[in-house]
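Reminder: ligand-aware prediction takes two inputs, not one.
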Amino acid sequence: MKSYPGLNIVMYHYILKNNKFYNYKLNSLNVDTFYNQIKKISKNNKIITPEEFRFKLNKKYKFKNEFILTFDDGYKCHYKIVKKILDIYKMKGFFYPTCFPYVNKNLLDINKIHLILSKEKNKKKIINFIYSQLKNKNFKIYKRINKTITKINKIKSYDDIETKIIKGLLQTFLPHKISSEITNILFKKIIKMPEDYFFKKFYLNFREIINLDKEKHEIGLHGFNHNRYQYLTSENQNIDIRKSKKFWKLILKNKSKWSICYPFGSYNNTTLKCVNKNKIDFALTTEKGSNISLNKKPLTLKRWDANDFL
Ligand SMILES: [Zn+2]
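Here is what comes back for the chain with zinc ion:
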């Protein structure tokens, strides 16, 4: 692979064997693809550790063909699969778990949606169900649905058109309360399993997170509830960031350096102020690209998607 200028950050989510989580096929990166990808990146670039990254950041050194690897949402596969591969190369990753699942012994809505999409192949049926629910729950939003769909269609994504509509409605354009209610009804109807059945299988446990931290991987904040910061009031953004920092401080007792990965890459000026106030060194977005010139405290770092290097 070519050499990339500046600092490059790759974003990973699920990395699975045969793209399978138990019986569910998830939209994920295959283990072998991941293994080959970091081998390819390393040819003309250097994958650096959190320690090296912070050192260069503090010294204001220039980044040149350097990569860091980030893993969002704290999935179990990040320990069972990713860590094993990183260990082979003596590499360190940047891991961003949320807090909600641990407090509620439940899945995040995004993960419920992934399981629903995996089980129900008839996507039109899901879309129609969402429409019928909306019609009952909030007629005003239902009446504007065509406008919303036009907006969703403009989003660039690796998903097919129907998946994009389902995710767009449930993850972005419907008010959180309504989308969460609809997601839960769909989950019960389609998955037919208690939500806490998946919790332990889905996410890293505290022992694994403590180990990652001890072995000098980065554990950073990814929101308490995985909400989009740009839609929260400044007070609620502050609460979410403070609460998640406090949560991880209780688990990782000696942790003193912090970073954040904005859930869904969503932030606004208020977020930047909150992040600053909470003494967070750097922050990751989902805007695409290399980071060429960096501030000492970079709070809007761009990232590549793993799929950009396939
Ligand atoms: Zn996330």
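The chain is about 50% helix and 10% strand. The pocket of zinc ion is lined by residues 72-73, 222, 226, 263 (CB under 6 Å). We will return to this case in the review session.
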